[in-house]
């Protein structure tokens, strides 16, 4: 987070297990911390806390036990209008090219998906507090056997994957998941850079690209990539439920935020459906 930021941890003892995917939680925390850092260009303090809380009644949460993960900064804060729009997709107070505006929206979506909540509290001059509530796992309930579906992820051979995302946090998290699955990863943080990689190196088995990128979005990149490397399997990672107007290419899509198993399943499906032999 930089040398000008004082990072403090306040983690309660004996936290119970929470019902959340580790990779998704890590990505959510990274986004919240980077947002806090960016709100303090002259430096400041970020407090990361975790504790168990009991909710008896709330509009956005069912009654029960939750793990509350909080990120608190001493930045300039937000006014009421900005705070009200903070979780809207693609709303951002950062200058062009500094962020997609999908961070808080994706964290909110993850929280809702988990039957939790994301709460923001902020005032001008008083910093911002982000609270992510995640339901406590019921350890007394034994996991039921899971029937393996034909659609289930099956490990594939090691592939060389070009990963394109202008959000460095998402790129880092996805690259870690891909490496953990045994794949070789080439990273590019923009469409033009990805095209240069493809032009210089045809030994790419699959491209995974974000959609919302400045200058050249993922659909535009995919069209250009197919001109350079016809038949290249491409997976579009997007926070959109539906593709925006003007997106003319039909690509397999993986909704953000995604788990490692979801990512692995899509890679397996695309590589098995491709006529191109793997480069490894």
Walk me through this protein's architecture:
With 280 residues, the chain is of the alpha/beta class. Helices cover 29% and strands 24% of the residues. It has seven helices and ten strands. The strands form two sheets. A five-stranded mixed sheet has the order 1-2-3-5-4. The protein has a five-stranded parallel sheet with strand order 7-6-8-9-10, sandwiched between helices. Helix 1 (22-38) packs antiparallel against helix 3 (103-113) and helix 5 (191-200) runs parallel beside helix 6 (218-228). The longest helix is centred in the first third of the chain and has 17 residues, at 22-38. 32% of the residues are buried. Mean pLDDT is 82; it is low at 90-102 and 140-153.
Number of helices, where a helix is a run of at least 4 consecutive DSSP H or I residues: 7
Q: State the total count of DSSP E strands.
A: 10
Helix content: 25-40%
Unreliable runs, pLDDT <50, ≥5 residues? 90-102, 140-153
Spell out the CATH superfamily of the largest domain.
Answer: Histidine kinase-like ATPase, C-terminal domain
CATH fold descriptor of the largest domain: Heat Shock Protein 90
Tally the structural domains: 2
Query: Order of helices and strands, N to C?
Result: EHEEHHEEEHEHEHEEH
Order of the strands making up the biggest sheet: 1-2-3-5-4
Described by its quaternary structure, the protein is single chain
Largest beta-sheet details: 5 strands, mixed
């Amino acid at each position: 987070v930089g040398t000008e930021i004082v990072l403090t941890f306040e983690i309660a003892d004996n936290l119970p297990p929470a019902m959340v995917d580790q990779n998704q939680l890590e990505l959510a925390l990274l986004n919240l911390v980077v947002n806090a850092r960016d709100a303090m260009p002259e430096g400041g303090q970020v407090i990361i806390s975790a504790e168990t809380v009991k909710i008896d009644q709330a509009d956005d949460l069912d009654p029960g036990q939750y793990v509350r993960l909080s990120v608190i900064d001493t930045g300039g804060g937000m006014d009421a209008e900005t705070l009200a729009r903070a979780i809207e997709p693609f709303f951002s107070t950062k200058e062009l090219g500094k962020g997609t505006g999908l961070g808080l929206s994706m964290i909110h979506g993850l929280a809702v998906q988990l039957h939790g909540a994301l709460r923001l509290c902020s005032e001008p001059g008083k910093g911002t507090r982000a609270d992510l509530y995640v339901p406590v796992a019921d350890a007394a309930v034994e996991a039921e056997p899971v029937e393996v579906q034909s659609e289930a992820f099956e490990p594939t051979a090691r592939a060389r994957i070009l990963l394109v995302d202008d959000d460095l946090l998402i790129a880092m998290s996805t690259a870690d998941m891909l490496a953990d699955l045994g794949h070789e990863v080439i990273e590019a943080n923009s469409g033009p850079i990805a095209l240069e990689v493809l032009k210089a190196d045809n030994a790419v088995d699959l491209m995974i690209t974000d959609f919302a990128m400045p200058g050249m979005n993922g659909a535009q990149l995919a069209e250009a990539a197919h001109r350079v490397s016809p038949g290249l399997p491409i997976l579009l990672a997007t926070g959109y439920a539906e593709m925006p107007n003007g997106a003319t290419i039909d690509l397999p899509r993986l909704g953000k935020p995604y788990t490692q198993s979801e990512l692995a399943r899509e890679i397996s499906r695309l590589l098995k459906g491709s006529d191109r032999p793997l480069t490894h």
